Structures are given as structure tokens and as C-alpha cells.
Amino acid sequence: MKTTISHKIFETAAALPENWNALSDGNIFLTRDYLEVLEKSAPVNMTCHFIGLFEEEQLVGIALSQFLDLNKLESFGERDRCIRTSVRNFIFKTFASHVLFIGNNMLTGQNAFSFDEKINKTEALSALKAASESVKKLFKKRKLTVHITTFKDFLPEETAGFKKAGYADYYKFTIQPNMVFTIDPNWKSEQDYINALSKKYRDQYKRARKKSEGIEKRKMHLEDIIAFEETIYKLYMHVARNAPFNTFLLAKNHFSTFKRLLKDQFLFYGYFVEEKLIGFNTLIKNGNTMDTYFLGYDDSVQKEKMLYLNMLYDMIAYSVNKGFCQVIFARTALEIKSSVGAQPIEMYGLIQHRNKQINKRIAKIFDYLEPKTEWKERNPFK
Predict the structure, then answer these.
(1) Residue 291 preceded by cis peptide, ω within 30
(2) What DSSP state is assigned to residue 23?
């Protein structure tokens, strides 16, 4: 469809219009400071662009694009070794190694765009599609052809407007759900959360806390993160490489850059045994929502001390004590997150392959490539 909305592509946060943050709708992941984090410490195989939508000279929409070159990855994850995984990896390398996301592949949730509520959303989505074509042309000039374009992550009702805006040849897909922990407004402390658990899960909580004895948890500041950067990266890489599927690996300076630019909105907690860092987790304050971010741990200590489960409890405790409304636990480890009270929220995306013949079969191909996860949903509350 035709639209009067134009677009402009920016490569640096410094070049963004002065009123950029006013369009972010309170989402930290679309603000200038966060986009500067991506600019200065994105994964080695990721290139970010920032999209401004304009009506005449007025900024009416903002969006993020991420280009991933999967050829730069040594592997997509080393946990699952089977024929299906080998075939999947070959297909990705051969037919889908250059992927353009309109959205944020490092997070779960609608962190793709934000529009001025006064503009026509269908026209804005149409303008965003045109902007994605302009981004592809930028890469074409660099001799890089985008194989797959995808817009992510949306609730079911948020996908309805795309079809009207000219996305009919995009396939709507869903993968693992977003695990969201909703905090009861009556809870004022961690003890209120514990009291709400059924006996079975209260016993699980007590057992995990008992196992964690001897571990010291510390809030780490910028100078601490820099001092432990090598160890932090090793712990992160251990978890990342053992994931079933990866499309990027963080840069070594990612966490220190995040802390320097986002300051108190980015929380970094280290877990120590006799002054040795054996694990860490990170949180991002996003309005009244707490987003969990990347973590890392020594696997031998993790099993013995139930470290991952204790990290989940710690994240919940902090968020309850500080008055947040929900915790975004994102994808992966669905069952254990369910066991602490997180619930699955289905998220959808749109995907298109540049080859029309492949695109016609994208539904079957996608179904084959997407790693399946069998899990049982838990309800830990009374």
C-alpha cells in the first residue's frame, strides 16, 4: 500500500534525532542509550541499524534492525549432536546465512518498533517494510545478500495489522514461548512469594537455598565487571555453547559496555565461592518490568549447588522487593522457569525468504529447522 510516511536509516546512536527517546513509549530497548550499547558491543556477527519514520519532517516512528551473518559463527550450539541438527546447520549455512531482523534477536518481546499513536498503524507498518528493503540495499552494496527477513516478537493481536500493510507473502510462525512471571500486587517481600507456594514447591525452594550455602552473591559495579571480564566471558560461553541453538555470541566487552551506558538500569550479580567467581546473572529495569538477560556459570558448581534455580529465586526476590509488576524470563529452560511460577506467553513472528520457490515452502522448512522442545508446564502456587 502507498504511504506518505518516509524513512531514514541511521548507523550510529549519536546521529539519531533529538526527540528519538520520546517515541520509545517507555521501552528501554528502543532508547538511544541502549542502541548505543548495541552499536559499541554488538555480537561479532551482528550489524545494527536504527530506523526513523517521518511524516514530512516529524519523527513518527522508530525501529531497530539487526543483520546476522551466520557464516561468522563456528557453530550454532554444541549440545545436540544428531543428523537432524547437522542437516539444519547445513541448510542455515547454505540457504539462510544472512538474516535481517526487524526487532531484537537478543531479547524476547516486542522490541522491534514504536509508533506515534496518532499515525495510521497500517501505513506505519507499510513504511517499515519499505525501510527493511532499504536496509537490504545497504548490505547489497557491501556484496551481502539478505536471504531471510523476519519481524519479531508479537502477541497474536499485534500480528493482525501486518497483512493489511502488505506482508501477505510472509509466513507467520511461533517458536518457544516467552516465560513471564507476574507478581501479585499484594506481595511486598520475598516471604510473600514463598508463602504463596504449595508445599511441594516450598520444599523445592528450601532445598535449593540449603544447597546454595557457601556461595556469596555480590552486586558488581563497572570496575568489578572489567576486573573479572575474562572469567565472566568464559562462564557465559560455557552456557552459550551448550545451548541447543545459537545465532550469535556476545562480544567480550558487552557487559561492561552495558553497565557503563545504562548504569543503575543494568544489574550484574556475581556468585562467588572462596573469592572465585563461579556464576553471574544480569537484569535490566524496563519501566515496571524486569527483564532477565544473559547469565553464566561453572557447570560442576551449578549442579551441586542448584545455582541456576537459586538465580531464578534471586531474580524473583529482587523484583518483588523492589515493586516490579512482572519478570520477563524469556525463552529456554521452560520447565524450570515454570516451576518457580513463570507462565508461557505465545509470541509470533513473520518470516520471508528472498527465493520465491523456497518461500512457498517456508512453512514446511521452518517446521523442520525449528528445534522442538518437549516440556511440562508446572503450577507452583497453592
Answers:
(1) no
(2) G
b/e burial code for range 194-212 (CB count within 10 A of at least 16 → b): bebbeeebeebbeebeebb
Calculate the alpha carbon distances from 231 to 181, 270, 296 in Å.
30, 11, 10
Closest Cα to residue 247, out of 148, 178, 168, 145? Answer: 148
Does residue 262 have a pLDDT over 80? yes
Residue 331 CB contacts under 8 Å (≥ 6 apart), including other chains: 108, 175, 176, 177, 178, 179
Surface-to-core class of residue 239, CB atoms within 10 Å of its CB (0-12 exposed, 13-18 middle, 19+ buried): middle
Grid cell for residue 128: 517499515
Enclosing H/E stretch for 183? none
Burial group, residue 373, by CB count within 10 angstroms (0-12, 13-18, 19+): middle
Residue type, 330: A
Structural domains in the chain, sorted by start: 5-175+347-369 (3.40.630.30), 179-345 (3.40.630.30)
Task: Provide the CA 290 distance to its chain's centre, in angstroms.
Answer: 13
| Cell numbers linked to 190 | 520475598
Which segment of 37-41, 285-289, 300-304, 320-324 scores lowest on mean pLDDT?
300-304
DSSP state at residue 198: -
Q: What are the CA-CA distances from residue 329 to residues 8, 215, 232, 265 (Å)? A: 33, 23, 20, 17
Could you report the per-residue pLDDT of 343-366, keeping only the tens digit for each? 999 999 999 999 999 899 888 877
DSSP code at position 270? E
Q: Which of 76, 73, 103, 42 is nearest to 370 (CA)?
A: 76
Q: What is the pLDDT of residues 97-134, one digit of tens each?
A: 899 999 999 999 999 999 999 999 999 999 999 999 99
- Retrieve residue 171's grid coordinates: 509466513
